[in-house]
Amino acid sequence: MPDFDYDLFVIGAGSGGVRAARTAAATGARVAVAEDRYLGGTCVNVGCVPKKLYSYAAHFQEAFGDADGFGWSLPEAPTFDWATLRDNKTREINRLNEIYGRLLESAGVTLIEGRAKVLDPHRVEVAGTVHSAAKILVAVGGWPWVPEFPGREHTLTSNEIFDLDTFPKRFLVLGGGYIAVEFASIFNGLGSESHLVYRGELFLRGFDREVREFTREQMEERGVRLHFETNIESIEKGESGLTVSLTNGETLEVDAVLAATGRKPHLQGLGLDTLGVELNSDGTVHANERHETSIPSILALGDVTGGPELTPVALAEAMHLVRCHFSDDTPPPLDYSHIATAVFCHPNIGTVGLSEEQARERYAAIRVYRTDFKPMKHSLSNSRARCLMKLIVDDESDVVVGAHMVGDEAGEVIQGIAIAVKAGLTKADFDATIGIHPTGAEEFVTMRTPTRR
Ligand code: NDP
Predict the structure, then answer these.
(1) To the nearest whole percent, how much of the chain has pLDDT over 90?
(2) How far is CA 355 from the centre of its chain?
(3) How many domains does the chain have?
(4) What distance in angstroms lies between residue 131's CA and the mean position of ligand 1's atoms?
(5) One domain for residues 129 and 169
(6) Which end of the chain, N or C, is less packed with Cβ atoms under 10 Å?
(7) Are residues 298 and 428 part of one domain?
(8) Is this structure's pTM higher than 0.90?
(9) Is residue 34 part of a domain?
């Protein structure tokens, strides 16, 4: 066995890389991590964490609006200060960066600053120094991708949007995925005139159709301006802001444009192309069930491999990878079915399992239980917010194969329901569960009559 500097050399200190490094080190492996940007990767720095903090900030507007029905009167109209939110967010993220550093240090992982380049199956160069390792883990994540159009240079991506110097009073987001609906909602809630431009007929492609339609109604109700079946043709910068010309002939004047048009693997300069590491057709790194690339000593996980781009997936892959490569265990392949997810648009979406459309394709007969209602909280407010809940059941086995919610704290509610769906529980099990009253979530165990088959 050749003598290497490390047993595992991780490239990228994002959620997946850090978890793999710490977990491998806990088995006694000698581990190093190279990172050229910030500890914690996209999720901690320019993704999930700051996004959720900004989403909380945006929800206050609704709360202020709801308050007077409950007897509260605000002495004057509340005002919002962007710099306070932004700087408090930065302070919190700096704290998390330090925690990540301490976690690596206390696990005995060597942290190396700089962009790594893979030289061969066992050697990596960082800032002029060459390190050798039995295994190299590519956990470099993704990077925002923006399509070509005149004025593309005036767009921002999710890398910059959190740290704007000035608050955009008029905001436009291009795209119809997670980031687009979340930021359209966030800036709308913070007080911007907020536009979402999407090329398709309805955003959130792949989600349950009814969830998408309900979300559209509720986002419009809250004031987000949705422009579907159009795209950005060009952006011109003028004295009064950005003039965005759309392919449908419409022109919008805004202060900031966010391109939320997907992400690509962050492979530039990494050297994998020179080594001939196999890629998938979408440019992501091909990895097998043991997270090995076409060069078996080079491993890969997380967003760079093109699976669901979700932090908990990268974490699960990291722990599975360590079981595969740094223990005597031979674990079964990771199970990617029934991964619950939340979209933090306003209202939130929580979902697990199949959409109604997917279930109709997969099963001979299904039952759909569906309800939408005015949450109790809004019986005293003037809000017109409603909540949608939906269960999809395979008629033959009675197994609940999908659960969907659009409404307050949908992610929190669906996380619990996800355990039942993952466990393959039946509608009879849901019916046998006595609800918690008064909650909205109790509807998930009280819907008795199928809405349709
Ligand atoms: P998504 O892949 O979710 O969405 C990209 C959007 O951009 C789609 O609506 C797509 O349209 C559109 N698009 C793609 N190419 C073009 C083009 N040339 N012109 C116009 N529109 C285009 O990417 P996001 O950037 O929103 O997010 C990246 C990933 O990050 C997500 O997939 C998700 O996995 C993860 N994420 C998760 C979050 C969460 O868990 N809450 C939050 C934020 C991100 P079309 O649908 O027609 O292809």
Answers:
(1) 99
(2) 19
(3) 3
(4) 36
(5) no
(6) N
(7) no
(8) yes
(9) yes
Query: Is a pLDDT exceeding 80 seen at residue 10?
Result: yes
437 catalytic? Reply is yes
The residue behind tokens 């019916």 is 431
DSSP-assigned beta bridge partners for residue 111: 33
Q: Is 141 in the pocket of ligand 1 (CB under 6 A)?
A: no
Residue 335 lies in a domain: no
**240 and 194 within one domain:** yes
Report CA(302)–ligand 1 centroid distance (Å): 16
User: 361-386 b/e with 16+ CB inside 10 Å = b?
Assistant: eebeebbbbbebeebeebeebebebb
Domain CATH for 234: 3.50.50.60
Q: How many DSSP H helices and E strands does the chain contain?
A: 11, 22
Residues 93 and 211 in one domain: no
- Residue numbers of the domain that contains 98: 6-143+264-325
CATH of residue 377's domain is 3.30.390.30
Domain check: are 63 and 156 in the same one?
A: no
Q: Is 262 near ligand 1, meaning CB less than 6 Å away?
A: yes
Q: Are 293 and 286 contacting, i.e. CB atoms less than 8 angstroms apart? A: yes
Label residue 1 by pLDDT band (50, 70, 90). low
Active-site residue (options: 195, 325, 346, 437)? 437
151 CB under 6 A from ligand 1? no
Ligand 1 midpoint to CA 96 (Å)? 26
Q: What is the pLDDT of residue 242?
A: 98
CA distances from 262 to 49, 60, 144, 212, 220 (A): 18, 29, 6, 19, 23
CA–centroid distance, 446 to ligand 1, in Å, is 34
Query: Same domain for 87 and 139?
Result: yes
Which ligand 1 atom lies nearest to the CA of residue 144?
25
Q: Is 176 in the pocket of ligand 1 (CB under 6 A)?
A: yes
Average pLDDT over residues 74-83: 95
Protein residue with least CA distance to atom 18, ligand 1: 147
8 Å CB contact between 410 and 346: no
- Does ligand 1 have an atom closer than 6 angstroms to the CB of 112? no
Candidate from 174, 261, 344 with most ligand 1 atoms within 8 A of CB, to mutate: 261
CA distance 318 to 330: 15
Residue at 340 is within a domain: no
> 225-247 pLDDT, tens per residue?
999 999 999 999 999 999 999 99
